[in-house]
Amino acid sequence: MGAHEIRIRLGGVSRQRAYMITNRADFPQPVADLSQGKVWLVGDVETWMGVHRRHQSANSEA
Q1: In terms of CB atoms within 10 Å, which end of the chain has fewer, N or C?
Q2: For residues 2 and 37, is the Cβ–Cβ distance under 8 A?
Q3: In the chain, what percentage of residues exceed pLDDT 70?
Q4: 3-state DSSP call for residue 58?
């Protein structure tokens, strides 16, 4: 999963916000740093989101 997919999965956050999130100490480390950008494992990102972004899914159900 690249940065663009992470932005979409996080609800369409800005590039700057996605950069801030992916550089947090508790965000999963990328598995590769390609010329087009960093790449993360989908499972790692989904697990992180399940812990840290729970309030967002609760708000969307209301």
Answers
A1: C
A2: yes
A3: 85
A4: helix
